[in-house]
Amino acid sequence: MIPCFSVHRNLACLQRALGGVMWKSSFGPAPLLTAAPARALIDDQISIKGHFLQPQCPVTVCAQMHSDDGDLWEAFAHYNTNADGNVNLTRDPSVGGSYLGCEPMGLFWGLQPAPGAREGLRLRKKNVETPYVMLLSLLEGHVSHSERQSSELAAVTAERWYMAPGVRRIEIRQDGVVGTLFLPPGPGPFPAMLDMWGMGGGLVEYRSALFASKGYASLALAYFGHRDLPGPQNRINVGDSYFTSAFHLLQDHPQVCANRIGIIGLSFGVYLTLRIATQSDVKPSCLICINGPAGNTIKLMDEEQMENGQRYWTYDDQGFVSFRDISLPANIPPENIVKMEHLACPLMYIVGEDDMSSSSMENANLIEETLMAAGKSQLFTRLSYPGAGHLIEPPYMPNSRSSLWSVKPKKLVTLWGGHLAPHAAAQEDAWKKILDFLEINLRRNSL
Fold it and tell me: What does the alpha-carbon distance between residue 326 and residue 308 come to, in Å, rounded to a whole number?
């Protein structure tokens, strides 16, 4: 007869090899929770399964993760095991919790700040050289976050990365340009992206890191609110020559294919993307624009930028601010609207139909109408997503419907829009189509 401690020791070895923890049992295998792959890119699906459970019984799967700022985010979902005592999140529906239905990645895009968290949080990766580490746990019964002391049956961790092994991160401070260049593994040369975000300012790297993980060199470009740019930091102090220099810096890099460079912009980065592609000697191969304007109420380097835009701010009943009306084409001086008839490359424009920060649908209509009148409608592709908000980003990370915008001179919470499940579906679909668009326009058509 085999002693009980030998059985438990062998089961513990198995559990450690699979990345989980044990629930002691004297009668058979202890419950097991697996997540595969245990280390993956942020846009990779993870298969989460529970094994050796009681047949047809309620269980809860929980996820917990700390942001780079130390804030706790969490999600949970209720499942019922099948007749074999298993649960498979790729196959089985959630019947309660942070989401409903069969959502294999619901524990990731369903993350929300834990109770008692700071106001106005938004989950964004600041250090792309470290992963998000997700703790997944399996609990007995259908419970909520506040009942986490319920019996934990098993647990496992999963790492989520923006940088694949071998991707190189290079800080750029050259010819006045401030950014971070990400290069894929290998000698190249690689097709490339110039990557710009919105008026939140700073240097946002995680999308560029993910592009490099997909085989594209990518330059994340700062143009506002960064200590290494000309001050003051509360306005844009660079002009067209800055963006032209950034494109040429990327173009001249020995590991970049000079004739295979695209530009991507979100929010105000859309205006800059379109402006660069139609006004300068820059010749991009393609453009991707996500929820942003085709014009601007203010001029670059205008000393009264913020003041000029504030007259279009609106507020909801909670006092949260929406910037949506700033970008209504009717509010933009005609001379400040990009001359879209000069566009010479394919453009993909992505619309979140619940965008509360930018008049994205109206701007998409304006761009499409202008291109059609110029006989260039073949250059335009629109993706439009009901229920999606402003911040359409790489998939499986949670949307924030609102978040803290500023604390000085006064605290402002801004509205982004979007509802968790449809926004998550939009991010997943848009990212796949972005990669397909880049494959066609930066690889196949340029060979």
Answer: 10
Residue type, 399: N
Please give the class, per CATH, of domain 32-161.
Answer: mainly beta
b/e per residue, 221-259, with b = 16+ CB within 10 A?
Answer: bbbbbbeebeeeeebbbbeeebbeebbbbbbebeebbee
> pTM here?
0.91
For every residue of 223-281, DSSP letters joined together read: -SS-TTSSS-TTS----HHHHHHHHHHHHT-TTEEEEEEEEEEETHHHHHHHHHHHHSS
- For residue 189, is the peptide bond before it cis, meaning its omega torsion is within 30 degrees of 0? yes
Cβ density class 73-92: b for 16+ within 10 Å, e for less: bbbbbbbebeeebbbbbeeb
Which among 212, 284, 196, 197 has a CA at the least distance from the CA of 255? 212
The HSE-up count of residue 425 (CA atoms within 13 Å, CB side) is 11
Which residues have CB under 8 Å from 67's CB, separation 6+?
73, 121, 123, 124
What separation in angstroms does the CA of 217 have from each of 126, 184, 433?
A: 19, 6, 19
Binned average pLDDT, 10 residues per bin, the chain of 447 residues: 34 40 58 98 98 96 97 98 98 97 98 95 97 97 76 95 98 96 96 96 96 98 93 86 96 97 97 92 96 87 61 93 95 94 97 98 98 98 98 97 87 96 98 98 75
Supply the residues annotated as catalytic: 267, 355, 390
Third-level CATH fold of 168-444: Rossmann fold (3.40.50)
Assign residue 424 a region: left if phi > 0, alpha if psi is -120 to 50, beta otherwise? Answer: alpha
How is the chain split into domains, by residue range? Answer: 32-161, 168-444
Q: Is 118 helix (H, G, I), strand (E, B) or coil?
A: coil
